[in-house]
Design brief:
Layout: E1 3-10, H1 21-36, E2 45-49, H2 52-55, H3 59-66, E3 73-77, H4 80-97, E4 102-110, H5 126-132, H6 140-155, H7 159-174, H8 187-191, E5 195-197, E6 200-201, E7 210-219, H9 220-223, E8 231-232, H10 260-271, E9 280-283, H11 288-297, H12 306-314, H13 328-331, H14 338-349, E10 363-366
Parallel strand pairs: 2-3, 2-4, 9-10
Antiparallel strand pairs: 1-7, 1-8, 4-7, 5-6
């Protein structure tokens, strides 16, 4: 049996949305079901990332809100971006095994209401609170800046090369209605942007907003009877490192390689294709540096050449490998990997208007653990 994505939906991203995450997710799921031509009663499975969605938008609450009548499968996998993209693997397994026939996956976030700020989570990790926070070494910009410094030491990294990621993302966001950052950006504008953690500028960092996205999967046989063209989940892969979340960014012995070096080859092998077969890539861009590493990890550029590959124009609107064609986390909105899945589906369907990549038939989506929010109370 082959699984396919048959519906996608998302809320309009906003800097501040007064609704709780549960309401944002419910709206996104309803939109995805409407896109698929299905009802809540048709859904019998849920697959999401592990932490935030188990607490902020639990399957029983979302199921009741959309009118589910029977829940035969629920699965959570990993964290944040890695978990949201990895949920495709869970959903496919549930459909292939017959545990569920229609599976929804979703992610929602409300950074404007996160108690204590987005980095308050670090105070819950004893090692970080004791050894990192007092010296200012905590928070994702600092971690990814350190990675960028190591990369520059090993391979070289010019500011213009790093900036090409943000400029490319903005070029796609300009073509995407609803993107939060649509004003034009060139490399001169990037270089004039303030540095927040050397060498990263503010434009190298993901947006902080509220929103939700969702997608619906079913078997290819059933998908053929639905109104929208099915997007086949040809292959999936998941990879991890033998490190805890608390130690990953500060105690990682392989600093310039991500687990995408593991998950990518597994996904390609599962699909029976290779990097040269990909028409469009939606790569987790919490920071511009993560895009560079994933270009290398997934085999689109040789090790140490990802920054130069991006700066060559290869990942832009006219490039040979368009990347983050909605603007990504840098310019569209932050819904971890869920928004990337939604964009990949629309590209393969051929419905992206001004940002459509000609002849897009094969898309790859890569996720990454960015941070975990601890929800209390």
């Amino acid at each position: 049996m082959t699984a396919a994505i048959v519906g996608v939906g998302e809320t309009e991203p906003r800097w501040q949305d007064p609704r709780p995450v549960r309401e944002l997710v419910t709206e996104a799921v309803r939109r995805a079901l409407a896109d698929a031509g299905l009802r809540g009663a048709d859904v019998d499975g849920v697959a999401t990332e592990a932490y935030a969605m188990a607490t902020d938008a639990p399957p029983d609450e979302i199921g009741c809100a959309i009118g589910m009548t029977d829940r035969t499968f629920v699965g959570h996998i990993s964290l944040a971006g890695a978990g949201t993209v990895g949920a495709l693997q869970l959903a496919k397994l549930a459909i292939d095994s017959g545990l569920a026939s229609v599976v929804i996956s979703y992610y929602g976030i409300s950074l404007s209401t996160t108690a204590g700020g987005v980095y308050a989570v670090h105070a819950h990790e004893p090692a970080k609170a004791a050894l990192e926070m007092p010296f200012g070494f905590y928070g994702q910009p600092v971690y990814f800046a350190a990675i960028a410094q190591r990369y520059a030491h090993d391979y070289g990294l010019e500011p213009q090369e790093l900036g090409s990621i943000a400029v490319s993302a903005r070029a796609f966001a300009e073509r995407t209605p609803g993107a939060l950052r649509r004003e034009p950006l060139d490399i001169e504008g990037y270089l004039a942007n303030p540095i927040v953690a050397d060498p990263l500028r503010k434009l190298d960092c993901c947006l902080m907003n509220d929103g939700a996205a969702a997608f619906v999967l079913t078997s290819l046989d059933r998908a053929r009877d639905l109104p929208k063209p099915p997007v086949i989940v040809a292959g999936t892969g998941f990879g991890s490192r033998p490190l805890t979340q608390a130690t990953y960014f500060s105690q990682n012995p392989d600093y310039t390689t991500l687990p995408s070096a593991i998950s990518g080859p597994r996904a390609f092998a599962s699909a029976g294709i290779g990097p040269s077969d990909v028409d469009v890539a939606e790569l987790y861009d919490c920071f511009s540096m993560s895009t560079i590493m994933q270009l290398e990890d997934l085999g689109f550029a040789p090790r140490g050449d990802g920054a130069r590959f991006a700066a060559s124009g290869a990942i832009g609107p006219k490039g040979r490998l368009p990347v983050n064609t909605h603007g990504g986390l840098l310019s569209h909105s932050y819904t971890v990997g869920a928004g990337h899945v939604v964009e990949a589906v629309r590209q393969v369907r051929g419905t992206r208007g001004d940002a459509q990549v000609d002849g897009a038939e094969v898309a790859v989506v890569a996720g990454l653990v960015a941070f975990r929010r601890r929800v209390t109370g």
